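User: For a reading group we're discussing how well predicted structures match intuition. Take Major facilitator superfamily (MFS) transporter. Before you show the prediction, I'll give you the sequence so everyone sees exactly what went in.
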Amino acid sequence: MSVVAQRSINRPRPIPSLRWWIGGLLFVSTAINYLDRQTLSLLAPYLKLEYHWTNTDYANIVIAFRIAYTIGQTACGRFVDKVGTRRGLSITVAWYSLVSLLTSFARGFASFAGFRFLLGAGEAANWPAATKAVSEWFPEKERALATALFDSGSSIGSAIAPFVVLSIYFRWGWRPAFMIPGALGFVWLIAWRYLYHPPQQHPRVSAAELQYITAPAGESAASTDLRSPRWRELLKFPQTWAIIVAKSFTDPVWFFVTDWFPIYLVAKGITLKSSLVAIWIPFLAADLGNFFGGGVSGYLIQRGWTVGKARKALVVFGGIGVLALIPTVLTQSLFAISGLFAIATFSYSVFSTMAIVLPSDVFHSDSVATVSGFSGSGAGIGTIIAFELVGHFSDARSAQGVHSFDPILIVAGMVPFVGMLLVLALLRNSKATEEGYARPI
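Assistant: Thanks. Here is the predicted 3D structure of Major facilitator superfamily (MFS) transporter, as structure tokens, for the group to look at:
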């Protein structure tokens, strides 16, 4: 008897379009993830005054998060491939939610750095696990849109964070501003544990949807007879490096926006209270970019484009669009700055959506989270280097009486463009494709 037929016997009533409900849960997880991490960046201008931190001190606290996040991406990717998406994400969300709550007990530089390190270790699993979940629950033609859905949680979480965090801060202080967002993860866990199972084991998936998800189009027959490649073998494939580069040359720019944008505005002479509405504009644009990238790429595939050609077209669009950061050096207008940042973050999200979906496009299910973790670690290394330079460079300019991030913005606009060129060169079929370890792209 087939798997689909077996599922039709003695099972609960199916949930219509269950895969999109699961995609919605992944979106909420990502939004909570970003709400938790944005708390520090939004409170940084006030915490810097209270604890007498320099920009270098703040950069080092953020870097503590990035070090754990960088190591955790590869470690958590392999962990999720081993224990499964449901269990892996349950453990890590519980971990970082608890750490967020405990951050309210921080007393200075060392304790803030310690708690941020622990937060990074837990939050590292979200993208590898979500990417793996998408590869399990969505057919190839829907994966980019499903990826856009969960990845858009990063921009939505960042957009609502100023309203949530600053409202709590101005009413009750900074400690509750860490506690309340941290509690949301435990609420999410209840829904996750109830709703998520692999498709073939899920008691509430309909026979038609299971057939749609598992219809031939993903795993090739040859791949089922192959062992899973080891880490060192995966790192020999040019496709792996294309995915690593795609994240490593874009995420540092996004994390600059999420972690430094409030400080950047203050350096421009703009107060946070007067700029609260404008702060969310780049994050809303990033959210729209996610869906534009996912939707257009899926449309191109339906029109007969190959997966590789469709993904590369959007990579080019994103790499060129992030150059919009460079003209911000020419203006002091809050809304002009927000508008240019919005163009850049929209373009970043188009590029990022392609970077996130590529592991499931190129590799088979048992390697997806691992390769996604590699790319996250590459992005983490790039972000650590970038933040260390930003902290020292901005402090050095401040010591000279120049409170400006302009040279940093010029470099930030150029880096994704270089990444685009490298991805185009590396994303190709190779010996790994011929041997069945990777799919044709």
